[in-house]
Amino acid sequence: NSLETYVFPKIGRSLPHEISVDDVLSVLQQPHLRRDKRLPLWDAVPETASRVRMRIETIIAAAKSKALGSANPEIKALWKDHHNPAKWEDGLQHWLGKKGKKFKGNFAAMAFADVPAFVQELQTKTDYSAKALMLTIFCATRTSETLNATWDEFDLDATVWTIPAERMKAGVEHRVPLSSAAITLLRGLHRFAGNPYVFPGAKRNQPLSNMAMLEMLRGMRDGLTVHGFRSAFR
Question: What is the pTM of this model?
Fold first, then answer.
């Protein structure tokens, strides 16, 4: 089935509330062989890709509905302000065209030479979405890896960030070397008592919204994706 073929290999290990717009794009823009040509899934088999998007949207919506009906206040708070990343109107329309006719490219990335100036621009901003985007750039991590980072994963003296296996797409623990710029950024962040997240959200004991960095980037450089920065460093 389409979930097993296209979705599970990409985001099957992610919890529903962890899935971001970039994650959904990784599914819809994955390479697909058609007539001896490798095209993005959205272009190669648009009807299938459209159904895949709708199935992801439905699954996440169902998870949210169940969570909001939970008696557990922490679970309800986790989903209260959640935006469905697979919903067409919540971001995907900026990166995909109907039935693949206006496809904008595979994770639009900033040219590597332009990244330093962009980081300098980010450094003038004080909100946590900007700080989260900076760490994502410094460490070439995925959106969910950054937003769900907790302070206990970092050893600043040893300059390493250890992302546990359960948070990694491949299900394997990942150790990220921290540059001096990343260390300086992290040391300058305020730690909120009782909140384990490096980038806290508006709700108590919750991380930033999964749309936070994308909205920040969209306001600064329309047309780019957060995931595109990983491509810029390849």
Answer: 0.56
